[in-house]
Amino acid sequence: MNSARETVLGRIRDALALAPAPAAVVPRDYRTGRALPDDERLALFTDRLLDYKARVHPCTAGRTAEVVGDVLREHGVRRIGVPAGLDARWLARYDGEVRQDDADVPHTQLDALDAVVTASAVGCAETGTIFLDGSPGQGRRALSLVPDLHLCVVDLSAVEAGVPEAVARLAPERPTTLISGPSATSDIELERVEGVHGPRTLVVVIRTDA
Q1: Is the entire prediction scored with pTM above 0.85?
Q2: Which of 5, 28, 36, 111 could form a disulfide with 41 if both were Cys (CB 3.0 to 4.6 A apart)?
Q3: Which InterPro entries is this protein grouped with (predicted)?
Q4: Mean pLDDT throughout 88-107?
Protein backbone atom coordinates (compact mmCIF):
# COMPACT_ATOMS: atom_id res chain seq x y z
CA MET A 1 0.00 0.00 0.00
CA ASN A 2 2.76 2.40 0.95
CA SER A 3 4.58 1.67 -2.29
CA ALA A 4 1.47 2.40 -4.37
CA ARG A 5 0.77 5.57 -2.39
CA GLU A 6 4.31 6.81 -2.88
CA THR A 7 4.13 6.03 -6.57
CA VAL A 8 0.97 8.08 -6.98
CA LEU A 9 2.31 10.99 -4.92
CA GLY A 10 5.58 10.88 -6.82
CA ARG A 11 3.76 11.18 -10.11
CA ILE A 12 1.78 14.13 -8.78
CA ARG A 13 4.99 15.83 -7.63
CA ASP A 14 6.57 15.24 -11.03
CA ALA A 15 3.53 16.67 -12.79
CA LEU A 16 3.48 19.76 -10.58
CA ALA A 17 7.16 20.35 -11.27
CA LEU A 18 6.52 20.61 -15.00
CA ALA A 19 6.11 24.03 -16.56
CA PRO A 20 2.43 25.05 -16.49
CA ALA A 21 0.57 24.61 -19.72
CA PRO A 22 -0.38 27.82 -21.50
CA ALA A 23 -3.86 29.05 -20.74
CA ALA A 24 -6.45 27.78 -23.16
CA VAL A 25 -7.95 30.38 -25.46
CA VAL A 26 -11.73 30.28 -25.20
CA PRO A 27 -13.53 31.85 -28.17
CA ARG A 28 -16.02 34.50 -27.14
CA ASP A 29 -17.40 35.34 -30.54
CA TYR A 30 -20.99 35.56 -29.40
CA ARG A 31 -23.44 36.98 -31.86
CA THR A 32 -23.90 40.61 -30.90
CA GLY A 33 -25.28 43.73 -32.41
CA ARG A 34 -28.68 42.29 -33.25
CA ALA A 35 -31.24 45.07 -33.30
CA LEU A 36 -34.97 45.03 -33.93
CA PRO A 37 -37.43 47.88 -34.46
CA ASP A 38 -39.54 48.72 -31.41
CA ASP A 39 -42.67 47.02 -32.73
CA GLU A 40 -40.85 43.77 -33.54
CA ARG A 41 -39.01 43.78 -30.21
CA LEU A 42 -42.30 44.36 -28.37
CA ALA A 43 -44.04 41.58 -30.32
CA LEU A 44 -41.23 39.09 -29.69
CA PHE A 45 -40.92 39.95 -25.98
CA THR A 46 -44.70 39.72 -25.52
CA ASP A 47 -44.88 36.39 -27.35
CA ARG A 48 -42.19 34.87 -25.14
CA LEU A 49 -43.78 36.19 -21.94
CA LEU A 50 -47.19 34.81 -22.90
CA ASP A 51 -45.58 31.48 -23.75
CA TYR A 52 -44.30 31.38 -20.17
CA LYS A 53 -47.88 32.10 -19.00
CA ALA A 54 -47.11 35.61 -17.79
CA ARG A 55 -49.76 38.30 -18.26
CA VAL A 56 -48.73 41.26 -20.40
CA HIS A 57 -50.11 44.81 -20.52
CA PRO A 58 -48.41 47.17 -22.98
CA CYS A 59 -49.14 50.84 -22.32
CA THR A 60 -47.74 54.32 -22.74
CA ALA A 61 -45.73 55.79 -19.87
CA GLY A 62 -48.56 58.21 -19.11
CA ARG A 63 -50.97 55.31 -18.47
CA THR A 64 -48.68 53.37 -16.11
CA ALA A 65 -50.62 54.29 -12.95
CA GLU A 66 -53.95 53.48 -14.60
CA VAL A 67 -52.82 50.04 -15.79
CA VAL A 68 -51.08 49.19 -12.50
CA GLY A 69 -54.19 50.20 -10.54
CA ASP A 70 -56.48 48.18 -12.83
CA VAL A 71 -54.31 45.05 -12.55
CA LEU A 72 -54.12 45.22 -8.75
CA ARG A 73 -57.89 45.72 -8.47
CA GLU A 74 -58.52 42.86 -10.90
CA HIS A 75 -56.52 40.51 -8.67
CA GLY A 76 -58.17 41.74 -5.47
CA VAL A 77 -54.88 43.01 -4.06
CA ARG A 78 -55.27 44.81 -0.73
CA ARG A 79 -51.68 44.93 0.49
CA ILE A 80 -48.57 45.38 -1.64
CA GLY A 81 -44.86 45.55 -0.98
CA VAL A 82 -42.66 47.98 -2.85
CA PRO A 83 -38.89 48.48 -2.90
CA ALA A 84 -37.31 51.77 -1.90
CA GLY A 85 -36.99 54.06 -4.88
CA LEU A 86 -40.07 52.84 -6.76
CA ASP A 87 -41.75 55.65 -8.70
CA ALA A 88 -44.67 56.61 -6.43
CA ARG A 89 -46.63 57.92 -9.43
CA TRP A 90 -47.14 54.32 -10.59
CA LEU A 91 -49.33 53.70 -7.52
CA ALA A 92 -51.47 56.82 -7.83
CA ARG A 93 -54.55 54.76 -8.83
CA TYR A 94 -54.08 52.12 -6.14
CA ASP A 95 -56.01 52.68 -2.91
CA GLY A 96 -54.82 49.70 -0.87
CA GLU A 97 -52.07 49.39 1.73
CA VAL A 98 -48.49 50.01 0.59
CA ARG A 99 -45.55 48.68 2.61
CA GLN A 100 -42.02 49.73 1.73
CA ASP A 101 -39.54 46.90 2.04
CA ASP A 102 -36.11 46.97 3.63
CA ALA A 103 -33.51 44.40 4.65
CA ASP A 104 -34.90 44.10 8.19
CA VAL A 105 -38.38 42.96 7.12
CA PRO A 106 -38.59 39.18 7.81
CA HIS A 107 -39.78 36.76 5.15
CA THR A 108 -42.90 36.00 7.20
CA GLN A 109 -44.07 39.57 6.69
CA LEU A 110 -43.31 39.38 2.98
CA ASP A 111 -45.49 36.28 2.81
CA ALA A 112 -48.38 38.31 4.20
CA LEU A 113 -48.32 40.61 1.16
CA ASP A 114 -50.82 40.05 -1.63
CA ALA A 115 -48.40 41.31 -4.29
CA VAL A 116 -45.18 43.15 -4.99
CA VAL A 117 -44.64 45.93 -7.53
CA THR A 118 -41.14 46.50 -8.90
CA ALA A 119 -39.30 48.13 -11.74
CA SER A 120 -36.69 46.24 -13.79
CA ALA A 121 -33.18 46.74 -15.12
CA VAL A 122 -33.10 44.98 -18.49
CA GLY A 123 -35.20 42.65 -20.60
CA CYS A 124 -34.39 40.13 -23.32
CA ALA A 125 -36.97 39.76 -26.08
CA GLU A 126 -35.56 36.53 -27.49
CA THR A 127 -35.93 34.63 -24.22
CA GLY A 128 -38.71 36.63 -22.54
CA THR A 129 -36.43 37.20 -19.56
CA ILE A 130 -36.58 40.14 -17.15
CA PHE A 131 -33.46 41.09 -15.19
CA LEU A 132 -33.62 42.72 -11.75
CA ASP A 133 -30.34 43.94 -10.26
CA GLY A 134 -31.35 45.34 -6.87
CA SER A 135 -31.21 48.98 -7.99
CA PRO A 136 -33.69 51.52 -6.56
CA GLY A 137 -37.19 50.51 -7.56
CA GLN A 138 -36.23 46.83 -7.83
CA GLY A 139 -35.33 45.87 -4.27
CA ARG A 140 -33.84 42.73 -2.79
CA ARG A 141 -34.33 39.29 -4.25
CA ALA A 142 -36.66 38.05 -1.49
CA LEU A 143 -39.19 40.79 -2.21
CA SER A 144 -39.71 39.57 -5.77
CA LEU A 145 -39.80 35.88 -4.82
CA VAL A 146 -41.99 35.56 -1.71
CA PRO A 147 -45.31 37.33 -2.54
CA ASP A 148 -47.66 35.31 -4.73
CA LEU A 149 -48.09 38.00 -7.41
CA HIS A 150 -45.30 40.04 -8.96
CA LEU A 151 -46.22 43.07 -11.04
CA CYS A 152 -43.11 44.19 -12.89
CA VAL A 153 -42.88 47.40 -14.90
CA VAL A 154 -40.53 47.13 -17.91
CA ASP A 155 -39.46 49.96 -20.18
CA LEU A 156 -39.31 48.83 -23.81
CA SER A 157 -36.20 50.97 -24.25
CA ALA A 158 -34.41 48.61 -21.81
CA VAL A 159 -35.41 45.46 -23.70
CA GLU A 160 -32.69 44.06 -25.96
CA ALA A 161 -33.26 41.59 -28.77
CA GLY A 162 -30.71 38.96 -27.70
CA VAL A 163 -28.97 37.60 -24.64
CA PRO A 164 -25.45 39.02 -25.25
CA GLU A 165 -26.84 42.53 -25.67
CA ALA A 166 -29.00 42.22 -22.55
CA VAL A 167 -26.18 40.87 -20.40
CA ALA A 168 -23.86 43.63 -21.61
CA ARG A 169 -26.18 46.20 -20.03
CA LEU A 170 -25.88 44.63 -16.58
CA ALA A 171 -23.38 45.62 -13.90
CA PRO A 172 -21.56 42.36 -12.97
CA GLU A 173 -21.06 43.44 -9.36
CA ARG A 174 -24.81 43.76 -8.73
CA PRO A 175 -27.01 40.85 -7.49
CA THR A 176 -28.98 39.86 -10.56
CA THR A 177 -32.28 37.97 -10.58
CA LEU A 178 -33.49 36.51 -13.87
CA ILE A 179 -37.25 36.08 -14.28
CA SER A 180 -38.73 34.09 -17.15
CA GLY A 181 -42.44 33.82 -16.40
CA PRO A 182 -44.09 32.86 -13.11
CA SER A 183 -42.40 30.27 -10.92
CA ALA A 184 -43.24 26.80 -12.22
CA THR A 185 -42.01 23.24 -12.22
CA SER A 186 -43.17 19.85 -13.49
CA ASP A 187 -43.12 16.46 -11.82
CA ILE A 188 -42.08 13.21 -13.46
CA GLU A 189 -45.46 13.03 -15.21
CA LEU A 190 -44.99 16.59 -16.56
CA GLU A 191 -47.81 18.01 -14.46
CA ARG A 192 -47.09 21.76 -14.31
CA VAL A 193 -47.28 23.35 -10.86
CA GLU A 194 -46.94 27.11 -10.45
CA GLY A 195 -45.80 29.07 -7.43
CA VAL A 196 -43.43 26.45 -6.04
CA HIS A 197 -40.35 28.60 -5.51
CA GLY A 198 -41.56 32.08 -6.46
CA PRO A 199 -44.65 34.05 -7.51
CA ARG A 200 -47.55 32.07 -8.89
CA THR A 201 -48.54 35.01 -11.09
CA LEU A 202 -46.31 37.36 -13.09
CA VAL A 203 -47.83 40.49 -14.61
CA VAL A 204 -45.61 42.56 -16.89
CA VAL A 205 -46.51 46.16 -17.69
CA ILE A 206 -44.46 47.20 -20.72
CA ARG A 207 -44.11 50.95 -21.17
CA THR A 208 -43.78 51.28 -24.91
CA ASP A 209 -42.56 54.88 -25.01
CA ALA A 210 -40.13 54.82 -22.07
Answers
A1: no
A2: 36
A3: FTHF_cligase-like_sf (IPR024185), LUD_dom (IPR003741), NagB/RpiA_transferase-like (IPR037171)
A4: 95
